[in-house]
C-alpha cells in the first residue's frame, strides 16, 4: 500500500498491528488477559510511529506513555473513569485505543483529528487541552463534582452511583508551572479521591530546568526511599484490608513500589507512591489497581518513562523527537523542507544577539521554549544572560519586571498564545508600573496544524487596551530587525512586538536594525488619485499588496500603508488615509477588538466618520475558534487573503456614477 493510500484508507492492517483490529473501544481491551497487553502496547507503538510518519506531530511524548496508556485503559473503566491528559500532546496512543484508530492518519490534517485532547472529538477526552499544567485542576474539579453528587444522593436516599475515578496524567515539564501546585495545594486540603500520575521522562520540550526537576530526579534515583518492608506497610494503610493482603503477597508489588514519606507531595497532603517503571506492565498494572482501589484522598503516582521509547531514532535524538514533520520510518530522517527565507524566529534571535553584544543590560527570558523562540541561539552567544524559567509564563513576566526595576533590559520571548496565561502579570506587574519589559511574541496569528489552542489571535486585543503599552507588528523580516532595535531603544515603558510562525518573505535583511519612531507608520504605495486605502498591520502586508495589484489591474488605484504600530496609532497617517479615500480597509492577523477596533475608535473620536464620506472595513480573524488547517486555508476562511481583501474592497467601493447620481457599491450592481 502506498503512503498516499495509507493516509486515505486508515490503519495499515499489518501483522504488527493486527491485535488492535479487535480493540475498537477500551471495553474490549479490558477483556484481554494481562499477558497480552504488552503485545497491544507494541502494536500501538507501531501504529503510532507509522501514523506520525505521514502526518507529522508530537512523537516522543506519546511513545513514552504507550504502556501507561494501555495499562490505564485496562485498569480503569473509561470513559466513566476520567483520564485527563495534561497538554494532550502525548494522547495519540490514547486516541488509537479510544475509537479513533481509523482516523489516526488524519491527525492534524485539515478536517482530521486534533493533535491534542478535545471534548468535542470523543467522550474519552473529558477535558480539552494543549496549554500545559491544567490537568490536576480539571481532574480535581471533576472529583469534587463526583463527591457532591454522592453526598446529594446520600441525603436524598438515592442509590449510590458508580464509584468513579479521576486521573490526571502530567509530565515533569508541565509540573514546573504554578497552576499544578495551586491545584495540589487545593487537592491536599480537600482530601478528595484524586489520582495524579507524574509522568517523569526527565524531559520537557528542551531538557527540563529548575529545582523541581532536580528534585524529581533525586526521588527517582531512590535516595529518598524507605525500606521495602516499611513501604509495603505504609502502602497498606492506603488500601482496603483484603486488597492489601492480596497485593502485599504479589512479588511485583513489593518490587516496584516505594511510598515516600516526607516527600514534598506528602507534605502537600498527597500519598506519594513510586517511582514505578512506566514501561513495565508487570509493575504498572498491580500498582494502578491498588491506587484505583484505595479509599484515600489524593494520591500521586510517580511513573518513570523514557521519551521516544521503542523507536531508536527518537531515543537517540536530543529532543527525543518531541515534535516532528513527516519522516521515513526506517531511517527516522525527517522531510524538512529547504527554507526560502530565514524564519522570523531566527531573525529575532540573531537581532537580539546583536543588541546584547552592544549592551550588557540586555537579557533574554524564555518559558521552556528556547528552540521555538530563538532564545537557544541567544543562549549560545550570551549564556549568562539567558534565563529558561520552565513552563512558567507568569513568573517569566514578573521576573522580567524585577529585572527592569534594576535597570536591565529584559526581552521576554513567549508565544502569543502562551502569554495569555500571564495576563495579570503583564497588566499589574509591568504595564501599571510602566516598566520597560520587551514582550516578543512569536507565533502571532494563525499557526496551522496546532489549531485553535495555539492560535496567536488575541494579543492585539489584550495588549492594545493597556495604558503605557506600545504594540508593534512586523510586516516582514527586515521590519522585525528594526523592531527589535526599537524595543531595545524604548526604555520608558513596556513594548510588545509580534511576528508570525514560519519563514519571512525573502526581503534583504539590514546589517543593523534602526530604532523606528514610536507610533509612526509608513506609506508603502501612494499612487495619485487612489480611491482605496489598505492599512495593514503585520504580515498581511504581502496579501494586501497582491490585492492592490489586482485592483490596479482593474484601474482602481490603491494606497497601501504599513501601520507598524497598533498602539500608539499613527494618527496623522490614519486620519489622512480616511480623509483622502473612499474606502479604508484595515488588516490584521488577530481577533476582533484589536487593531481595527483601535483605528475605528480613533476615527470615531476625531469625527472622521461623521460626514459619512469614507467607508471603513476592518478585516480580522472571525469571532470563532477556527479548527486546525493550513494557515493559508485558515486565512482564506477568515477573508484575510488577497481574494478576501479584494472581495471586501469591491463590496465597499462606491460605483462612480454621473454627477448627482446616488453612489452604490460595486457589489450591489
Ligand atoms: C502554558 C504552556 N506553555 C508552553 C507550552 C509548550 N509545551 C508543549 S509540551 C511542552 C513540554 C511538556 O513537557 P512534559 O510535561 O514533561 O511532557 P513530555 O513532552 O516530556 O511528555 C511545552 C513546554 C504549553 N503547551 N503550554
Task: Give an overview in words.
With 669 residues, the protein is α/β, with parallel strands linked by helices. The protein folds into four domains: 118 residues, 3-Layer(aba) Sandwich (Rossmann fold), CATH 3.40.50; 173 residues, Thiamin diphosphate (ThDP)-binding fold, Pyr/PP domains (Rossmann fold); 155 residues, Thiamin diphosphate (ThDP)-binding fold, Pyr/PP domains (Rossmann fold, 3-Layer(aba) Sandwich), CATH 3.40.50; 146 residues, Rossmann fold (3-Layer(aba) Sandwich). Helix content is 40%, strand content 13%. The chain has 28 helices and 20 strands. The chain has a seven-stranded mixed beta sheet, with helices on both faces. Strands 2-3-4-7-6-5 form a six-stranded mixed beta sheet, sandwiched between helices. It has a five-stranded mixed beta sheet with strand order 15-17-16-19-20, with helices on both faces. Helix 8 links the parallel strand 3 and strand 4. The protein binds thiamine diphosphate. The site of thiamine diphosphate (TPP) has 24 residues, from helix 4.
Amino acid at each position: 500500500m502506498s503512503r498516499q493510500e495509507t493516509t486515505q484508507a486508515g490503519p495499515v492492517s499489518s501483522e504488527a498491528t493486527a491485535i488492535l483490529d479487535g480493540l475498537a473501544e477500551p471495553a474490549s481491551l479490558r477483556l484481554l488477559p494481562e499477558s497480552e497487553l504488552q503485545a497491544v502496547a507494541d502494536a500501538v507503538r507501531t501504529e503510532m510511529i507509522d501514523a506520525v510518519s505521514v502526518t507529522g506531530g508530537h512523537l516522543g511524548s506519546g511513545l513514552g506513555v504507550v504502556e501507561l496508556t494501555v495499562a490505564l485503559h485496562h485498569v480503569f473503566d473509561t470513559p466513566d473513569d476520567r483520564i485527563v491528559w495534561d497538554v494532550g500532546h502525548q494522547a495519540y496512543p490514547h486516541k488509537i485505543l479510544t475509537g479513533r484508530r481509523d482516523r489516526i492518519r488524519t491527525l492534524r490534517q485539515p478536517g482530521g483529528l486534533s493533535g491534542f485532547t478535545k471534548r468535542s472529538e470523543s467522550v474519552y477526552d473529558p477535558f480539552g487541552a494543549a496549554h500545559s499544567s491544567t490537568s490536576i485542576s480539571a481532574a480535581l474539579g471533576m472529583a469534587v463534582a463526583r463527591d457532591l453528587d454522592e453526598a446529594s444522593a446520600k441525603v436524598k436516599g438515592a442509590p449510590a452511583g458508580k464509584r468513579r475515578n479521576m486521573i490526571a496524567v502530567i509530565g515533569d515539564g508541565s509540573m514546573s508551572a504554578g497552576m499544578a501546585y495551586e491545584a495540589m495545594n487545593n487537592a491536599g486540603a480537600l482530601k478528595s479521591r484524586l489520582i495524579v500520575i507524574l509522568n517523569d521522562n526527565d524531559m520537557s520540550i528542551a531538557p527540563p530546568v529548575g529545582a523541581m526537576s532536580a528534585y524529581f530526579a533525586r526521588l527517582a534515583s531512590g535516595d529518598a526511599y524507605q525500606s521495602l518492608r516499611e513501604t509495603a506497610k505504609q502502602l497498606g494503610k492506603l488500601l482496603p484490608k483484603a486488597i492489601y493482603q492480596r497485593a502485599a503477597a504479589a512479588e511485583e508489588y513489593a518490587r516496584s513500589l516505594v511510598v515516600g514519606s516526607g516527600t514534598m507531595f506528602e507534605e502537600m497532603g498527597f500519598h506519594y507512591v513510586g517511582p514505578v517503571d512506566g514501561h513495565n506492565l508487570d509493575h504498572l498494572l498491580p500498582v494502578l489497581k491498588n491506587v484505583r482501589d484505595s479509599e484515600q484522598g489524593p494520591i500521586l503516582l510517580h511513573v518513570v518513562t523514557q521519551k521516544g521509547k521503542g523507536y531508536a531514532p527518537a531515543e537517540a535524538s536530543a529532543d527525543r523527537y518531541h515534535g516532528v514533520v513527516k519522516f521515513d520510518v526506517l531511517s527516522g530522517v525527517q522531510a524538512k523542507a529547504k527554507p526560502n527565507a530565514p524564519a522570523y524566529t531566527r531573525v529575532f534571535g540573531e537581532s537580539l544577539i546583536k543588541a546584547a553584544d552592544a549592551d550588557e543590560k540586555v537579557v533574554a527570558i524564555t518559558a521552556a521554549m528556547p528552540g521555538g523562540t530563538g532564545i537557544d541561539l541567544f543562549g549560545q552567544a550570551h549564556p549568562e544572560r539567558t534565563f529558561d524559567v520552565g513552563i512558567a509564563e507568569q513568573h517569566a513576566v514578573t521576573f522580567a519586571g524585577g529585572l527592569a526595576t534594576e535597570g536591565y533590559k529584559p526581552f521576554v520571548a513567549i508565544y502569543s498564545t502562551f502569554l495569555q496565561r500571564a495576563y495579570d502579570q503583564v497588566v499589574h506587574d509591568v504595564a501599571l508600573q510602566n516598566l520597560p519589559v520587551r514582550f516578543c511574541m512569536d507565533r502571532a496569528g494563525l499557526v496551522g496544524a496546532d489549531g485553535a489552542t495555539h492560535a496567536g489571535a488575541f494579543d492585539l486585543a489584550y495588549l492594545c487596551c493597556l495604558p503605557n503599552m506600545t504594540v508593534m507588528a512586523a510586516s516582514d523580516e527586515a521590519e522585525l530587525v528594526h523592531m527589535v532595535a526599537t524595543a531595545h531603544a524604548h526604555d520608558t515603558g513596556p513594548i510588545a512586538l509580534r511576528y508570525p510562525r514560519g519563514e519571512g518573505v525573502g526581503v534583504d535583511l539590514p546589517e543593523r536594525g534602526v530604532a523606528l519612531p514610536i507610533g509612526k507608520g509608513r506609506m508603502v504605495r501612494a499612487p495619485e488619485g487612489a480611491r482605496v486605502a489598505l492599512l495593514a498591520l503585520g504580515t498581511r502586508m504581502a496579501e494586501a499588496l497582491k490585492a492592490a495589484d489586482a485592483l490596479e489591474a482593474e484601474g482602481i488605484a490603491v494606497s497601501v500603508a504599513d501601520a507598524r504600530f497598533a498602539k500608539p496609532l499613527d494618527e496623522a497617517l490614519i486620519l489622512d488615509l480616511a480623509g483622502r479615500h473612499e474606502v479604508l480597509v484595515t488588516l490584521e492577523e488577530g481577533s476582533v477588538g484589536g487593531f481595527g477596533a483601535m483605528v475605528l475608535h480613533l476615527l470615531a473620536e476625531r469625527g472622521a466618520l461623521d460626514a459619512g464620506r469614507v467607508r471603513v472595513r476592518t478585516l480580522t480573524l472571525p469571532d470563532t475558534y477556527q479548527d486546525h488547517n493550513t494557515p493559508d486555508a485558515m486565512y482564506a476562511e477568515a477573508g484575510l487573503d488577497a481574494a478576501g481583501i479584494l472581495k471586501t474592497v469591491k463590496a465597499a467601493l462606491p460605483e462612480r456614477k454621473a454627477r448627482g447620481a446616488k453612489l452604490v457599491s460595486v457589489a450591489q450592481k
